[in-house]
Amino acid sequence: MRGPLVVKRAFSEPLLLLAAFGSILLATTTLVALTMYASSIADAGVRRTMETASLRQTSATISAPVTAKTFPVYDQAVRAELTKAYTKAPTLTTSFHSDSYAMPGQEDRDRPELLRFGSYDGLDQHAKLVSGAWPKAADGQVEAAVSLSAASAAGFKVGQELTTVGRLSPEPVKVRITGVFQLDDPFGERWTGEQLLSRGVERGDFTTYGPLMVARETFIGRFATNVNATWTAEPDLRALTPAQLRPLAAAVGEVGPHLKAAGCASCVTTSRLPEMLTQLDTASLVARSTMLIPVLQLLLLAAYALMLTARLLADHRRMEVALLRSRGAGTMRLAALAGGEALLVAIPCAVVAPFLGPPLLGLVNRIPWIRASGVRLDPTVGLGTFLVSGAVALASAVLLVLPALAGARRTYVEEQSARGRGGGRGLIERAGADVALLAVAGLAIWQLQHYGAPVTATAGGGLGIDPLIISGPALALLTGGMLGLRLVPRISAVAERVTSRRPTLAPALGAWQVSRRPLKYAGPALLLTMAIAIGIVSMATSSTWRGSQLDQARHQAGADLRLSGPPDAPELGPFGRGTAFAALPGVTAASPVFRGQTEVSSENAVLIGIDAAKLGTLFQLRPDLSDRPVAEMSRALAGPQAGKLDLPGRPAALTLRATADADLPLRLVLSDALGVWRDVSLGVLKAGENTIDVDLAAMAGRSGKITYPLSLRGLVGSAPSEGSASLTVTGISADGQPVTVPAMSLKATGRQPAMAAFGSPPVQGPLPVVLTADLATALKLGVGQVGRASIDRRVMDVKVVAVVETMPTTTAGQHAVLADWGTMQAQDLAAAQLPRPATEWWLATGDGRAAQALTGRPAWDVTALDQRALATKLQDDPLASGLQGALMLGFFAALVFAALGFLVNAAVAARERMNEFAILRALGVSSRQVFGMLAMEQTFVIGLSLAAGTGLAVVVGMLVVPHIVLTGQASAVTPGVVLDIPWGATAAMLAGVAAVLLAIVAGLARNLRRQGLGLREEQ
Fold first, then answer.
1. Start and end of every ABC3 transporter permease C-terminal domain (predicted)?
2. Residue 136 DSSP symbol
């Protein structure tokens, strides 16, 4: 009897039953999808990070001095420990470096040129033979292969036989060159610790060639005399899961101590992997915890929508329940009926929702930034999915039952009396619960702002999700909406007074109805307000996140394309680099830049020198980071420039003639048309007449070209520690043609350098600079002030032309100084200091062609940082972008909840008032006026909800959004996050929601017209 009664009773209210079913199905499906999404995105983020991680990040290196006797013991221990740490044996490469040997024929020199021997496992897999064959292990003569760059520099050829003697061992070694090879990627990360192998020659106090690569067995037998051996482990971590991150980090971190305990006391272990895995684990935890924020918002919205439906259902059945009680039905019987009815709706949703989750995530895969990242979510339905679905469905059933049980003890007479009573204040408002929730929400948001993420330290010293923090945004939305309900009676009363003074009846009736029964409209208004706020906050978070990724890329790059590398390189010399870079396709502006660490009045800082005239084109500073625009900085930074003497034509050689009265080391400072300054050693001038030849063409490099004209800037010399030295320039010629030179001389005393300028001497004055805010505070200088500061231990006057919160290319909290390139060089020259080299080149590019062109030129030895590629990489990070998909799911679900709840409430409210409408018609009110009254009531609810939801979203967005936008490593963003509410999209969303809701009202009015007229005729 109970089963059929439950079914019959449930289907007696098909509209409410369908609304409850839709709400529960939407809640279970969306929350199951969000649970699947959070798990899938964490797995995808870890997998993507491991797939794209560089060799330097994932590898582990172990180095130790070995001999032929100790190497096998160490090798076995290293392999065993690495296999134990990684659970799966990594690819292990062993490399060796020998002591120095003298170049053949130079054994008796005091400073001979040197060569080294080496061995590298699997070298043939990372290099190709140009000629000859790979060396083999053989007794007697040593077989060796040499790189193409080393062969070119030292003159080695295939088949050549040579004999060399070690610097530490007199025993000669006979070597035969069997092959010449070329590394596949000589400037790749694999060869970071193999500079001699990648370059072929190193020049310093000694010139060293090589290494001559021999077979492993040959090296151990002939050269392993307490030399360095390096083991490099390359693990395959593509299948790593979030649960394995910290255990693997701990295991790799213990390799070094375990090796020392095993007897390898001299083993030095180096790996960035533990730090990377720990950081990735934290980022994964933060990503999952952040995605709980939209989950909780949606849970709250779903619970409230379901409670509204349950309240309507209970209101409809109160008289029925009272009659059942009068006929002897007890509380347990009524609870069983209500529970059975709720389970009848909830159980199908619990079963169906897990199978609807994956198709819903398939739609998430179509979101542009998820699709662009290459992440493909492929979740599977498992036990956990059904547990989540069942828990949500059961909770929904309980919410459906509670309102029915709340009025189950009332008698029929009590119900009749209660139907006529109403009030302007709800129970929650009367109890002050909304104010109490406001305090809790405020505490949660304060903690979010304080900790910067929904993750805090646990009692055990680890990291865990803080439930108060992640609930803060949801509580703020709920509290804000509840506080907004306090406005409904007041605004409706104002609307009643305004409309009552007008002659039209419908608005007055509608406003009077809302003011008479505000609590009837408070429920739908709160639902709409929360849904609109969730939608706008979701859109704002997505827009803010995308804008933040672009801001981070611009800040890290500093310019469209930033190129770094050694100022002097064989392929492109100091005067050849700028010419080559400026000629790259798509380049519209270029500037040499000095960027390096310096000391500013005992504070470590980054010094950036760039052409101020091109600052507006190159420098990517977000406008809010400084009170002064970049264009004004550009004009204010340019200070006095140094004079120069332009060389006529396109000279490849320069000859300088000078007379000195004592030995004087001398350097020539010159520059090219691109503004690159460089000093050239002229050697030590002797007393008397000196003639020095300078090879200008060599300063372009093998494949570089000079941008003419070349200009002479000055001469810098320093005398011995005691005494003085004077110099007078007697003549200069370029390519044999004399150059008119003004009379110039210098006198150096002691070790103090002296300078002679070509052209007008540089003007000494305050150096205009831009400082970061914290450095300006440390120096106690403000904008427009002049003060003394020590830069590179040289005290000078500086003038602060602007202060920025953070300087592009620097990290959070890092001090920085920005100065004009030419002014800075002039100041250095005036102080007889050598010019700063161009450590970087900043380029403005219209597209990505310049960066693409650089990929085919590894010999240029350039590291490129492309702002566009960096922005794409940041936006494609699954862990950083994971929140966006969750927000979109929550956004669409919130709108559907709002539309569904509004439809049900409006339909039920209109149906309940059929008799009221009939009485109004009998009193002479036209059907148009009746429907106008209905439209006025619902429009009031819609308008108030849209306005309150927008205001609430702005407040919550300002308090919350900047603190949940983090980097892919779960760290604070630099520069700081700026809230971006896309007002165009927001207005379109609000208009669309209003159109849908008004269409619902119009449909209800049309339906009531058909039903109401028939009813009135019968009456």
1. 296-411, 891-1005
2. -
pLDDT category of residue 320 using cuts at 50, 70 and 90 = low
Average pLDDT over residues 101-119: 86
Rounded distance, CA 656 to CA 650, Å? Answer: 17
Helix, strand, coil tally for the chain in percent (to 5): 50, 20, 25
Report DSSP state, residue 229. Answer: E
What is the average per-residue pLDDT within 126-149? 88
Exposure string over 207-240, b if 16+ CB within 10 A, otherwise e: bbbbbbbbbbebbbebbbeebebbbbbebebeeb
- Per-residue pLDDT, averaged over 229-233, amounts to 91
For residue 96, what is the enclosing H or E element?
strand 91-102
Q: Is 487 exposed, middle or buried (0-12, 13-18, 19+ CB in 10 A)?
A: middle
Answer yes or no: are the C-beta atoms of 367 and 884 closer than 8 Å: yes
**DSSP structure string for 304-357:** HHHHHHHHHHHHHHHHHHHHHHHTT--HHHHHHHHHHHHHHHHHHHHHHHHHHH
The region that residue 226 occupies, defined by phi over 0 for left and psi between -120 and 50 for alpha, beta otherwise, is left
Please give the backbone phi and psi of residue 256, each rounded to the nearest 5 degrees, phi first.
Answer: -60, -55
Tell me the whole-structure pTM to 2 decimals: 0.77
| pLDDT the model gives residue 358 | 82
For 819-850, what is the HEC assignment? EEHHHHHHHHHHCCCCCCCCCEEEEEECCCHH
The mean-pLDDT minimum among 102-111, 174-183, 933-942 falls in: 933-942
Distances (CA, A) of 60 to 71, 78, 88: 18, 11, 14
Q: Which of 46-50, 521-525, 669-673, 714-718 is predicted most confidently?
A: 669-673
Distances (CA, A) of 983 to 382, 988, 989: 41, 8, 10
Cite the DSSP H helix spans in 467-517. 467-485, 487-500, 505-516
Tell me the one-letter amino acid at 313. Answer: L
Residue 794 exposed, middle or buried by CB count within 10 Å (0-12, 13-18, 19+):
exposed
d(CA 245, CA 273): 10
Backbone angles phi, psi at 330, to 5 degrees: -85, 175
Closest Cα partner for 646 from 701, 707, 571, 588? 707
| Identity of residue 722 | E
Q: Alpha-carbon distance 716 to 950, whole Å?
A: 67
Q: How many CB atoms lie within 10 A of CB 91?
A: 12
Phi (first) and psi of residue 603, to 5 degrees: -110, 130
Higher pLDDT, 396 or 419: 396
CA-to-CA separations, 221 to 168, 533, 552, 600, 867, in angstroms, rounded: 17, 75, 53, 53, 50
Residue of 594 and 378 predicted with greater confidence: 594
Would you mind telling me the total number of residues written for the chain in this entry? 1019
The residue with tokens 């202060």 is 803
In percent, the amount of the chain with pLDDT more than 70 equals 81
Instruction: Look at residue 703 and tell me whether its pLDDT is greater than 60.
Output: yes
pLDDT at residue 926 above 80? no
Sign (positive or negative) of CA dihedral 553, 816, 787, 823: negative
State the pLDDT at residue 537.
Answer: 87
CB 652 within 8 A of CB 698: no
List, in sequence order, the alpha helices (H) in 365-411: 368-372, 383-406
Q: Reduced to 3 states, what is the DSSP secondary structure of residue 112?
A: coil
Cα separation, 495 vs 943, whole angstroms:
13
Task: Return the structure tokens found at 1004.
Answer: 């209800």
List the single range of 283-287, 296-300, 322-326, 711-715 with lowest mean pLDDT. 322-326
Nearest-angstrom CA–CA distance, 280 and 274: 10
Which one is predicted more confidently, 872 or 801? 801
- Answer yes or no: are the C-beta atoms of 798 and 600 closer than 8 Å: no
CA distance 687 to 685: 7
